[in-house]
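In the current project phase, the collection of sequences with tokenised folds has grown. One resulting record follows, to show the layout:
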Amino acid sequence: MRFGCFACNNVADADGSVPIHFRNFDTDAAGGPLVRIKLARRRDEMAALVEHILTKCPDAKHVRGRSWLYHLPAYRRVFPPAYVASAEPVEPEARNFQGNSLWGQVIDSEEQLRPDVTDMVMAALPTMDLARPWTVFPFGLLATRASLEKFVEFYRL
């Protein structure tokens, strides 16, 4: 189910967690989806997502994420402090090396290549570990997790 730039599954995983996803659906003259002027909008979207989880996912106990975006202060400020504090580096599965959880850092909010990041990735290719290709990206994958209650408190639901 989608809520602005955020989405989630409609059922909790076996461990009671609901994974969230982010996609840029809000670039305009004011800037990309994470500019400060849009912070209230992103938090409202997350609040709506949490309300959805509360009503549609009775087995849900946690919210979790996996993305390079957790390195960015602009992204982190959308979430409860406990969720942000839980961020830990993880390695993606080599067989599932797709999607924007890492590749998204190569493009900007207008879906144009970011030359600075692209240059870093290209420079790292000659020494890339073929068993761990994700190491060429400047920002590694971070996993986050916090109880649903922390989200309810943070968004005052």
